[in-house]
Design brief:
single chain; mainly alpha; Jann2411-like fold; 434 Repressor (Amino-terminal Domain); disordered N terminus
Length: about 260
């Protein structure tokens, strides 16, 4: 019989909130729950209990950057190297949230928004949940799936905390079958184990950092579809920052369409 406490085998409400926050985008489907500031405000209000108003595109981008920064941390929990500058970008996004610490009459500390609450109000609840999970020792059990195209946040309830997949029947079995069929999982949709060096970025990393969809990144890279100039500039800046090198030749072979070079 396991002697592990229930708090260690089931996610706490704090961990569940952070997990749901990270899982507001499904990269395999390229489906984001926050396509507009209104959708972001609705999700944050529903899940944190803190109402927001007058959110704009800048708030949406900051929330997405925080989300992907936290995902980068969860990938490290699963035994992977951090993407170059991912933690620095997370810290930079957090610095844009006007938050301060406040104490209630009983001496309990909490994060609150300074000035107009905006997106900082509900985001303070997300950050407090992370701190709560860290304090009770469950934070390291929240991980991100090792399948590159998935990266779904999940609770690792295994005794040895050795889980690597959001689902063994799904992503775990997919990688296992690719190995069995002779495919190199490090190249085909698997994030490699930590080596102490920066791991190479993929299109998912570019999309997450730029706060856009994978399809938008693909359109910028291939020129297959027009992209708003401001969005294109942001994506191209991230491509340069991450030193991302898409395999355009392989993409052309798969699609049968020629590709265009990235401008700038």
């Amino acid at each position: 019989m396991s002697t592990e406490s229930p708090a260690r085998t089931q996610p706490s409400p704090a961990v569940t909130l952070v997990r749901d926050f990270v899982n507001t985008v499904e990269w395999q489907l390229d489906d984001d729950s926050w396509n507009t500031p209104v959708e972001l405000a609705s999700w944050l209000s529903t899940h944190t209990g803190v109402s927001t108003r007058n959110l704009d595109a800048g708030d949406l981008l900051v929330a997405r950057r925080v989300r992907e920064g936290v995902r980068a941390v969860l990938l490290m929990h699963a035994g992977h190297d951090a993407l170059q500058s991912s933690i620095a970008d997370l810290n930079d996004a957090l610095s844009l949230l006007p938050l301060r610490m406040s104490f209630d009459p009983r001496g309990s500390a909490t994060l609150v928004a300074a000035g107009e609450p905006g997106v900082a109000g509900p985001m303070s609840v997300i950050l407090a949940a992370i701190d709560s999970a860290r304090a009770d020792g469950t934070w390291m059990r929240l991980k991100a799936c090792s399948r590159d195209s998935c990266r779904w946040a999940y609770w690792d309830g295994s005794r040895g905390q050795s889980g690597r997949w959001c689902s063994m029947a799904g992503c775990g079995n997919y990688i296992k079958m690719r190995r069995r069929n002779g495919h190199d999982p490090a190249v085909h949709d698997m994030i490699g184990p930590a080596t102490g060096a920066d791991r190479p970025p993929t299109m998912v990393d570019v999309a997450g950092r730029a706060g856009v969809s994978i399809k938008t990144v693909s359109n910028v890279v291939t020129g297959a579809w027009p992209v708003a100039e401001s969005t294109r500039a942001r994506v191209e800046a991230v491509i340069v920052e991450l030193d991302y090198h898409p395999n355009l030749h392989a993409r052309a072979l798969r699609t049968g369409r020629p590709t265009l070079p990235i401008s700038g």
